[in-house]
Amino acid sequence: TEPVVPTIGDVDMDGKVSVMDATAIQLHIASIIVLGEDNLSYADADKDGSVSVLDATQIQMFVAQLIPEL
Prior knowledge:
Blueprint: H1 19-29, H2 37-43, H3 53-63
Helix pairs in contact: 1-3
């Protein structure tokens, strides 16, 4: 199998951007889980330099095909 290459929005680094990535951001913001630095580097979907609920929303919009790319 080929190695997984994460991209922006792939917070759980499983090779695809999904609602689970948005959920991981929400859980991190709520202090239910702690995302590592590697995960956080892919979580800034709106590329504003911070990880917030806006990033989770951006990922959700991408998954719903309301925006073409992250």
